[in-house]
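USER: Write out one fold?

ASSISTANT:
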Amino acid sequence: MDPKASLIKERLEAMERAGEVIASFLYGQQAISPLDLDRDLDAVAIISDFPQGLRYRFSGLGNGYLNALFVDRELFELDASKGVLGDFLADKLSMPYLPLSNPEYLKEEEVKAKERIVLEILEGLILEYGRLAEGLLFDRRYFPLARIKKRAGLLPNLGSTFASFKPASKFFESVLDGYELAIGNLVKAGVLRYEGELLSISGDFIERTLSKRAMARVVNLMEEGSRALKAYIARSRAGLTSPEFILREMASKLREEHQARFEGDLEDPRKYGFLKTSKGLVSLAVELDVMELIGELRPGCKLAMEPLGGVLNDVFLVSAGQEKFVVKKFTEWQGFKWFAINLVAFGTRQFALSWKARLSNEYAMNRLFRERGIPVPDVICLSLPKRTLVEEYIMGETFSDLAKRCSKSGDAGPEEEGAFESLGRWMARIHGIGACLGDAKPENVVIDPNGEIYFLDLEQSSKGGDAAWDVAEFLYYTGHLISFGKWFSHLVQAFLDGYKELGDEGVLRRAGGLSYLKTFALWTPPPTLYSISKALKGG
């Protein structure tokens, strides 16, 4: 064993003297890179009998930290096989890991977790495609990438972690062995079949899944949302004995620049999925309908397309000569993010899930806002059969990027305060016409090069609605992106001052209430939460 790995193993065992460490491992980028004790290391130690269940502890090691999660063996095995902690532990076996002790035991639990993961992916595909699933073929690499994409939609920090794995070849080399063993078990069980180098879903498994289709859809959605919530809760409970660790770890993760834009770094799993046709295999990643749509709009122009965020919807930036468009394809009910948030925000806010409702919201509210002089991107065209909407591209800085920039410098000047004040006025104006944004995250508001503010992503907007939710979501969600300081209090106050010029101060007081506070407690550090809440209540 690498001497550095031996040192880490010994340190883990020294950190827990009450129980026997039966297995331990490092996970993350360090598992596929030369070990560097001057960087932070993430590790898991499984204890034979650990009364606390699971706890984070940390220790200095070299010039970095050893961030160690200690977990009871039974709890570890239950999460691997059944996801009882929302896959909080199973996720660590899904990514590259380096065994420090008892590799045979870890491989056995890894295969259990990955076998369940593949089954869940297959069931989701059958529910999505119906009998079309009979014509699907997969390269093995589809499964780890599909898993990443699904989990990234629920747990953005996890998506950011997966996006950091470089190079991709080492990532696949590390994770595919466990998937190969899991796939072999599912072939023996009659769930999958080999077709040359590719895999297909057996007809019997498709029939069994479709026979319980209506209930399976409900259960699938409930499990995904509930699992995400369990993972957040497990993460919080694991760190209760070390608040300093939680704050330090959260701050370091949330400050990473790729956090908000990690989606473009994740390889599209559909590249490794195919559909049988009479002319051969067609990749699931083909987007000819999008390019054809723009080609009809701007005939003769050279077209180029690239992903523009969106692990949850398919969103692309298409260039037609010197002109740019945003193309948004509305997916069906598998918008896992919204269902997870519906669970967390139960009783406070409910979100539209179906693609028809969301496309309709975006189109109708865009028209209403433009009629009332509220700045939004122009809708160029839409296609209901293709579930596609084309809008003009607004270049500029999002309020999310603005907040991160101020957080990095530790200062906000008159220009930034003016932007927040202007946004407060615009939001009050929207509420004044009896409408709400519905999804007022700072990444959905852009300041163009001329200083004009534009509201993007209107799929959750509506007439009526909860104005207090818009205010609470914008401020509390912005709060989770930054390292709190006096400068942020000034930005919050600037927003409130702008809102009060045109809006109802009762909306602000409601936004500072407990129901909204508890909704964002999973994301935003308590000191930031309470500071914003106090300002909203006029304290």
